[in-house]
Amino acid sequence: MSEAADTPLELDDIQSGTLRPRPSPYAATYLLLRIDDRQAGRELMRRLSTVVASAGHPRSPAGDTWVSVALTFHGLRALGVPQASLDSFAWEFRQGMVARAQALGDTGESSPEHWEKPLGTPDAHVVLVALAPDSQHLATALGRARSALEALGGVEVIWRQDCHALPTQQEPFGFRDGISHPAIEGSGIPGSNPREKPLKAGEFVLGYRDEMGGFPPMPQPEVLGRNGTYIVFRKLHQRVAAFRQYLRAHSSSPEELELLAAKLMGRWRSGAPLALCPFHDDPELGADPRRNNDFLYRQGDSTGYVTPPGSHIRRANPRDADVAGVVRLHRMIRRGTAYGPQLPEGVTEDDGADRGLMFAFIGTHLGRQFEFVQSEWINSGDFLGLGTTKDPIAGASDGANSFSIPRRPIPRRLQGLPRFVVTRGGEYGFMPGLRALRWLADLQT
Predict the structure, then answer these.
(1) 397-409 per-residue burial string, b: 16 or more CB within 10 A, e: under 16
(2) Is 442 within 8 Å of 82 (Cβ atoms)?
(3) Alpha helices of 105-225 — where are they, by DSSP H?
(4) Which runs of E-coded beta strand occur in 277-340?
(5) 113-139: string of b/e by CB count within 10 Å (b at 16+)?
(6) CA distance 284 to 271
(7) In sequence order, what are the residues at sequence separation of 6 or more whose Cβ sits closer than 8 angstroms to the Cβ of residue 253?
(8) Least packed by Cβ within 10 Å: which of 127, 159, 178, 256?
(9) How far apart are CA 72 and CA 60, in angstroms?
(10) What is the pLDDT of residues 102-159, one digit of tens each?
């Protein structure tokens, strides 16, 4: 590691999409590209280096609008990156998400054989993401992305996913989304939980110290790896009708139904956390970004009488709860963008439409961040002393999953939770710094 490794974050070289929270509301489009001609792919990298906004500019040329780019392992190979450099990437990234399916719980209906093609195939080389506050600004961002593709006959768009957010910021199950965002040292971007100490930059950007005090393994040469990061893309289909059916079947009143939904999630649908309002929803609190994530668990709710230990948000981020392991070593940046039409309010029959979330997870340690959380916190309960139980919302359930709601004098135990979320595809990507994009463009191999 060079002496420059201890310098402040080089924001002008880090992609804006790595560190900056998305605007609210937003519209987004994911494009998947295949590189058929190496020289055309390198020219694309050169053009994108002038299109992608840096984290050093709070506002891109089109306002709160930006384009991000990531490459799969197959994409780096298609560009002709030398083998020695390819071998220096994280081994999970080199294997790819399809090879990691068993560890991630992508089995049964979620197994790669059922994925939406070309996700998870060797044809997936480049992932472009355009994000904007509305469809008009999104069209501007997509225009800049298309300009980078003009007259490049050796690069093809092979897949597209349009996403959106409601003004309420609700995801398809009806819960406010995009609430939790960690504070990162040196980024100048505050976290959403004032009780959480900022995390070391090396947890999210390569080339800087992480929570272990060292430097995450970085792809070589340094110009390629520094200021880059790993990103996980997941297309997750949500069975909204099945979720509503389950809630209705296990509730005797609308009030009990909403409380049960909150217990499964750990928040009311408005975004208000059970930790701050355990008995009823508080939409004003849920909509307040200064308060809706301002809580911990250890003081006042260590046993989970308020927020069940097995609830989704407590599994995904246990905060200061007593769990096996060090929570700060498994923090990630999470971003979900909804796709597909809404299922009308009150409808409990599936209409056959594809709806869900495009999820992105950002971090420098694929193994101890995304894969650990997915395998140990979402799809197992051992770290909480809950045995083989899975996340009631996002877990890889098979119809035999259970969920316990602590209460006096007798806990309530729900049985037979089905799988509410099905993986439709995904990719492991590497988000290079802007200098790295130019280095890729200048390759001579």
Answers:
(1) beeebbbbbbeee
(2) no
(3) 135-149, 222-225
(4) 333-339
(5) eebeebbbbebbbbbbbbbbbeeebbe
(6) 9
(7) none
(8) 256
(9) 25
(10) 999 999 999 999 999 999 999 999 999 998 888 888 888 888 788 888 888 899 999 9
d(CA 162, CA 181): 23
Paired strand residues for 236: 357, 423
CA 213 to CA 209: how far, in whole Å?
6
Is residue 103 within a helix (H) or strand (E), and if so which, with residue range?
A: helix 101-104
Contact 171, 333 (CB under 8 A): no
Position 181: which residue type?
A: H
- Kindly report the length of the chain: 445
> In degrees rounded to 5, what are phi and psi of residue 327?
-60, -40
Render pLDDT for 31-68 as a digit per residue (tens, 0 to 9).
Answer: 999 999 999 999 999 999 999 989 987 554 445 778 99
The position carrying tokens 């055309």 is 40
- Tokens at residue 333, please? 């940046």
Instruction: For residue 394, give the nearest of 172, 183, 204 by alpha carbon.
Output: 172
Among 154-168, 351-365, 379-393, top mean pLDDT goes to: 351-365
Per-domain residue ranges of the chain = 3-173+186-236+427-441
- Rounded distance, CA 233 to CA 429, Å? 7
* Closest alpha carbon to 259 in 282, 239, 240, 279: 279
SS (H, E, C) 289-300: CCCCCCCCCHHH
